[in-house]
């Protein structure tokens, strides 16, 4: 069966696994309600969480109504909550618990509270129904965000029609064509793909209003306030300060970036040289290529998949005492023959867990790089440790007769990024699966993965593995330096765009009813936080799919990057293979999963408490050019 789970040897097995999990959960609910207050209460709650998560994580069954409904009902089950409340109210028992057990008990209680356990029965039912409706709207919004728009082909000039898929008299526009060198193609794609769809607009409005209603029903002023409980930022006010201060610091640099792009557009298209939103990704790429001549084709031969995996293995071995070993899979254990299984082994602690690597392109495979948990780690009742199992998904090209799989610099960086998540899952060896590995606050979860990008861009690390697959020649140092510096070209404008998205997300999930329509808010926020003009009759927010999974938390990526930057500069920039720092990183940041407050983990690593200004400074200083490379290139 898939992942070695016997039920999953055929599609019907998913239903069987679900039924088994629901049955097991019912027994655990009964047990929790009849157990006297003590550490066992937390253990039973965690078993309940494990039983449900193993099925939900495995087949994403939380998208399945009956499962969602069941979880919502558990979160509003008064008797179940009472068993936990008795524990939390017993000061003698609570003071005898270790900090992780106390935190997990409090996190379970928090789940009850944000689901409205304190409400009367009628309001609790309303909260359950709102939860289910929100999930339906999320699914519908995601589907709508990826649908193409069509236009009568005769409206477009004949010479650009071939860029779009023809369907009778219509042309399908399925994306922004951001990399197309023809300005007109990008303009047409932008205006048609982002043309407002009335159904999608009403879905978004209902989603935002429903989230707000749920938050207010359970006692919060706004959805953002509810969503930011337990995060590094803690509240919307901190996020607002962070984004506004970052925007102020970026402002002049962004202006310079836009001026450079405008000059380049004037040079290539003198008739129509005003810089527009559809120009930013294209012209920043042109400037990077012109200034540093970074042709991915020159780098790929040095980054064979085998060499990159060897580089990761070497890094993990020297930093953390960990090695990756390929394991033979059993029949039916993987979903495609090119999926590889890696055992993660520590030099003294032994086997830590498994990573299934689904790295190659396949028809119908989603085009996204991601990490997801199949089974969380936890200490079982018999004293054994349940080993974590994760999947890493990439979209790499297959090897050919003449060459192995070769990665572009971007693919190599993504591989390191996703491996950062995997190591968090392997080393977040908590007693409870509810807080294992990456089950932590969203604004902390990206820190280990972004930190790995800093290693991937350091010559001392790259030099250990980047070899030409034919000649064995190492990648020259100046090529790595130029690659790193090229990423700083227009990086302020790129970051400014992320600030705009994060600010928009905060406003949408802030005070309701919204003062204006979502499109008017988009226009205002774009002018304040971005700088390129809003284009009439477009509604970019209807394609903002991150509003689903990152509602009120889109800022997380920027804040995680700030922390990763600080950790890199303070702890690893001097020596990226420093074993003592690697052990500190494991002990202070990776080992706790979500079992410790995120800001305390950051404080433990940096040995100081960072301020909003520190976060902003870390991000902005990353944009500064490296003087040595600049002089060499000059």
UniProtKB/TrEMBL annotation:
One of its GO terms (molecular function) is metal ion binding. It holds the Pfam family Peptidase_M3. Keywords: Acetylation, Calcium, Cobalt, Hydrolase, Iron, Magnesium, Manganese, Metal-binding, Metalloprotease, Mitochondrion, Protease, Transit peptide, Zinc. Cleaves proteins, imported into the mitochondrion, to their mature size. One of its GO terms (biological process) is peptide metabolic process. This is Mitochondrial intermediate peptidase. Its EC number is 3.4.24.59. Its cofactor is Zn(2+). The gene is Mipep. Its main location: mitochondrion. One of its GO terms (cellular component) is mitochondrial matrix. Binds 1 zinc ion. Coiled coil: none annotated. The keyword Kinase does not apply. InterPro entries: M3A_MIP (IPR033851), MetalloPept_cat_dom_sf (IPR024079), Neurolysin/TOP_dom2 (IPR024077), Pept_M3A_M3B (IPR045090), Pept_M3A_M3B_dom (IPR001567). Belongs to the peptidase M3 family. It is found in: Mitochondrion matrix. Transmembrane segments: none annotated. It catalyses: Release of an N-terminal octapeptide as second stage of processing of some proteins imported into the mitochondrion. Residues 177-619 form the Peptidase M3A/M3B catalytic domain. Monomer. The keyword Metal-binding applies.
């Amino acid at each position: 069966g898939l992942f070695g789970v016997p039920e999953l040897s055929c599609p019907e097995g998913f239903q069987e696994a679900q039924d088994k999990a629901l049955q097991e959960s019912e027994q655990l609910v009964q047990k929790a309600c009849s157990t006297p207050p003590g550490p066992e209460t937390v253990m039973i709650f965690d078993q309940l969480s494990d039983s449900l998560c193993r099925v939900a994580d495995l087949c994403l069954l939380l998208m399945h109504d009956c499962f969602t409904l069941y979880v919502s009902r558990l979160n509003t089950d008064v008797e179940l909550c009472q068993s936990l409340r008795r524990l939390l109210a017993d000061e003698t028992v609570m003071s005898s618990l270790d900090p992780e057990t106390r935190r997990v008990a409090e996190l379970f209680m928090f789940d009850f509270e944000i689901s409205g356990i304190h409400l009367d029965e009628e309001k609790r039912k309303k909260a359950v129904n709102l939860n289910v409706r929100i999930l339906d709207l999320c699914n519908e919004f995601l589907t709508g965000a990826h649908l193409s728009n069509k236009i009568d082909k005769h409206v477009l000039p004949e010479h650009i029609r071939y860029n779009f898929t023809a369907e009778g008299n219509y042309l399908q526009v399925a994306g922004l064509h951001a990399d197309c060198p023809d300005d007109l193609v990008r303009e047409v794609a932008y205006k048609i793909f982002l043309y407002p769809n009335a159904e999608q607009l009403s879905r978004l409005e209902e989603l935002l209003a429903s989230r707000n209603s749920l938050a207010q029903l359970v006692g919060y002023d706004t959805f953002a306030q509810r969503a930011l409980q337990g995060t590094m930022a803690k509240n919307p006010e901190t996020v607002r300060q962070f984004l506004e201060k970052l925007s102020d610091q970026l402002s002049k640099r962004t202006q310079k970036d836009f001026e450079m792009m405008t000059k380049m557009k004037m040079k290539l298209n003198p008739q129509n040289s005003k810089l527009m939103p559809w120009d930013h990704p294209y012209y920043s790429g042109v400037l990077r290529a012109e200034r540093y001549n970074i042709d991915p084709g020159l780098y790929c031969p040095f980054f064979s998949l085998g060499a990159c995996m060897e580089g990761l293995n070497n890094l993990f071995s020297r930093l953390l005492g960990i090695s990756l070993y390929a394991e033979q899979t059993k029949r039916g254990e993987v979903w495609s023959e090119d999926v590889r299984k890696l055992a993660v082994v520590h030099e003294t602690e032994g086997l830590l867990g498994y990573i299934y690597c689904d790295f190659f392109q396949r028809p119908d495979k989603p085009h996204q790089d991601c990490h997801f948990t199949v089974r969380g780690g936890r200490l079982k009742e018999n004293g054994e440790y349940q080993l974590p199992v994760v999947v890493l998904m990439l979209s790499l090209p297959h090897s050919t007769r003449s060459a192995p799989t070769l990665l572009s610099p971007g693919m190599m960086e993504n591989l390191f990024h996703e491996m950062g998540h995997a190591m968090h899952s392997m080393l977040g060896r908590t007693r409870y699966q509810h807080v294992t590995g990456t089950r932590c606050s969203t604004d902390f979860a990206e820190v280990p993965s972004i930190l790995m990008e800093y290693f991937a861009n350091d010559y001392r690390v790259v030099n250990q593995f980047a070899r030409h697959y034919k000649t064995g020649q190492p990648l020259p140092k100046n090529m790595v330096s130029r690659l790193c510096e090229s990423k700083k070209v227009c990086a302020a404008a790129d970051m400014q765009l992320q600030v705009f998205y994060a600010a928009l997300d905060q406003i949408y999930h802030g005070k309701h009813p919204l003062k204006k329509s979502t499109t008017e808010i988009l226009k205002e926020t774009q002018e304040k936080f971005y700088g390129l003009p809003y284009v009439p009759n477009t509604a970019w927010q209807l394609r903002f799919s991150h509003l689903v999974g990152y509602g009120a938390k889109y800022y997380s990526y920027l804040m995680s990057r700030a922390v990763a930057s600080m950790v890199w500069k303070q702890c690893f920039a001097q020596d990226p293979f420093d074993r003592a720092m690697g052990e500190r990183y494991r002990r202070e940041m990776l080992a706790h999963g979500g079992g410790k407050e995120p800001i305390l983990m950051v404080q433990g690593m940096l040995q100081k408490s960072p301020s909003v200004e520190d976060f902003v400074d870390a991000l902005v200083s990353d944009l500064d050019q490296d003087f040595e490379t600049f002089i060499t290139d000059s």
